[in-house]
Amino acid sequence: MTKLDTWRVGILFSTSGVTSIIEKSQLNGALLAIDEINSAGGVRGRTIEPVAYDPGSVVKRYGELAERLIVDDKINVIFGCYMSSTRKEVLPIVERRNALFFYPTLYEGFEYSSNVMYGGATPNQNSVPLANYLMETFGKRIYFVGSDYIYPRESNRVMRNVIRQGGGEVVGEEYVPLTAGVARFKSVISNIQKVKPDAIFSTVVGQGCINFYSAYHKAGGRGIECPIASLTTNEGEIAEIGAEASVGHITAAPYFRSIDSEANRKFLDSYRNKFGTISDVTSCCEASYCQMHMFARALSECGELDTDALRDALLGMTFQAPQGEIKIDPDNNHTYLQSRIAIVDENGEFDIKNMVRHMIKPDPYLVYPEIDDWSLRTLEIAERHRSG
After folding, report:
1. For residue range 263-284, what is the model confidence (pLDDT) as tens digits?
2. Coil, helix or strand for 387?
3. Which of 20, 85, 150, 289 could potentially form a cystine with 29 if both were Cys, beta carbons 3.0 to 4.6 Å apart?
4. Which residues fall within 8 angstroms of residue 304, CB to CB, at 6 or more apart?
């Protein structure tokens, strides 16, 4: 096919480096959606053609490759990024060039760009419910551990305010390099054991997350006694950590692989058929999948790869996602999402404990940060994981 026969989109997810374990799943989600769209006839008779580059988890490469996609490859729609630091590299590029950027990752909030479609959870959709759950279930003394870059520091700032509002206390806060190995976490865990918090809030990402959980378990830490709670630790990382070291630990996210619904079963079957396994399916993977499908619907509606036309078509759009219904908020380009809290069971699967029975409007600036607001709308449910 020639370039004129296809709709070309850029993809910037790392398949190498410290965050590749997550970004590979995001890449797979986007590619699965493209396959489904193309198998159904494409968009207006033309298939979607991905032009993908591997930034290697190197922050500055995301901006460089975004520029390359727009200037050299003549592509003005880009899907990509996991870390906030990499999003910040791409942001000025797409704004200057008036390109459209789909970001399928939870983040710290406090940002808006008319050139970005934000597909991941904002603090009111994950930090607030998680803080509420931890303090009600385990206690109000929380210890923070994070990777040393933008997202963990900003996420912890938000979480600290939410915990204090709920009468809780942050009893420790430490940051480690993205490349931190198991040995680096020994002193962190020693400090945790001295302070004896009720729970740990982790914003450690990538390979560091695996190293942290593994070191915690080796040092005698047990999730059923003092859990590590996270917004980012997902199915792919739990598979690497192993069930024995993961049991009892907690994650808040819009999507878990264990959701028992027809839409999710269909999604997982398609993913397994394409990639041979569902072990790396994550909330970020699902967000990437959904964003690609929503882009295709917008493209079908407007019939052109024009940023302004696509944006107009996307704002207010709803989609029946594997997690449940979602919607792009016309007020801020973020996404109405479901909200769930799950605990890792003895099989290494997330057992959903709490959920909100409707999608939550994104509040990226925490204009309405009241912790009780989420609590009053939350219902305990019995969505126990059933094998098979």
Report:
1. 999 999 999 999 999 999 999 9
2. coil
3. 289
4. 310
